[in-house]
TrEMBL record:
It is an enzyme of class 2 (transferase). Its EC number is 2.3.1.257. It comes from Diatraea saccharalis. It catalyses: N-terminal L-seryl-[histone H4] + acetyl-CoA = N-terminal N(alpha)-acetyl-L-seryl-[histone H4] + CoA + H(+); N-terminal L-seryl-[histone H2A] + acetyl-CoA = N-terminal N(alpha)-acetyl-L-seryl-[histone H2A] + CoA + H(+). GO terms for cellular component: cytoplasm; nucleus. GO terms for molecular function: histone H2A acetyltransferase activity; histone H4 acetyltransferase activity; protein N-terminal-serine acetyltransferase activity. InterPro entries: Acyl_CoA_acyltransferase (IPR016181), GNAT_dom (IPR000182), NAA40 (IPR039949). Belongs to the acetyltransferase family. NAA40 subfamily. Keywords: Acyltransferase, Cytoplasm, Nucleus, Transferase. It is found in: Cytoplasm; Nucleus. PROSITE patterns: GNAT. This is N-alpha-acetyltransferase 40. Residues 46-188 form the N-acetyltransferase domain.
Length: 213
């Protein structure tokens, strides 16, 4: 828990991943920055909410969760939310991730609540770069995994997360229990170093985040 507490107190995450915050590929030049929700510009937050609605509303409506904007906004404005924002050199907002440092099933994890890319920014490696940054931050703050929740009827996201090395997490519910979502994860190298702690943590009370990504 102390790793999570420490990570949540960090006011500047950029030094942990500064080499990755500039991205150039296939005619896009992108600058990225990270801010806690409390420092995030209101207009940027509104864009992130709008993009999430544009990208995800239909997918939510066609599964057991349904689309509940109020609940999504509440989730996106949690006090512990961090935002990674990607902006093109010309100033247009292209992608973001909402993530948090949290305890999940007794393990310190970086939980990726959203990764959303504007249509014009897709298939240029930007989503992958965003995940690379989250993985670097997870490693730098001693989190064991980057973990996330994915809708099972979102084939492009499934292909994307698999291509980026994410696999079914052991905490993912059985299909009979919940068929519409699954938990995916990628271990940081810390996972290998802390196997013993991991076993101890199994006996801790399971508190599962399960955000509706
Ligand atoms: C899913 C998403 C985040 C991917 O972002 P992206 O920047 O387009 O992804 P990348 O360019 O980094 O893709 C990396 C690799 O993932 C795979 N991939 C990405 N999108 C894919 C798609 N639509 N179909 C199949 N494979 C895909 C490919 O292997 C790709 O490599 P390639 O382009 O060299 O073949 C983006 O499409 C998006 O925002 N979608 C809508 C919202 C969403 O579903 N978010 C995820 C759940 S919250």
């Amino acid at each position: 828990m102390s790793y999570v507490t420490l990570a949540n107190k960090l006011t500047d995450l950029a030094p942990l991943c500064k080499d990755l915050l500039v991205y150039q590929n296939k005619n896009i030049e992108v600058n990225m920055y990270i801010q806690k929700i409390t420092d995030l510009d209101k207009n940027i937050l509104q864009w992130a909410i709008d993009l999430t609605e544009r990208n995800m509303k239909k997918l939510y409506e066609t599964c057991a969760w349904g689309w509940n904007k109020e609940r999504k906004v509440e989730e996106m404005t949690d006090d512990n939310a961090f935002y990674l924002i990607a902006k093109s050199k010309s100033g247009s907002l292209l992608a973001f991730s909402h993530f948090r440092f949290d305890m999940d099933f007794g393990e310190p994890v970086l939980y990726c609540y959203e990764v959303q890319v504007e249509e014009e920014g897709r298939r240029r490696g930007l989503g992958q770069r965003v995940l690379n940054i989250l993985e670097t931050l997870a490693h730098g703050t001693s989190m064991r995994y980057v973990r996330l929740t994915a809708l099972t009827h979102n084939p492009s996201a499934a292909a994307f997360f698999r291509a980026c090395g994410y696999t079914l997490d052991e905490t993912s519910p059985a299909k009979e229990e919940a068929a519409h979502y699954e938990i995916l994860s990628k271990a940081t190298s810390e996972a290998d170093d802390q196997t013993q702690h991991c076993d101890l943590s199994k006996s801790m009370e399971a508190v599962h985040v399960t955000p509706q990504i």
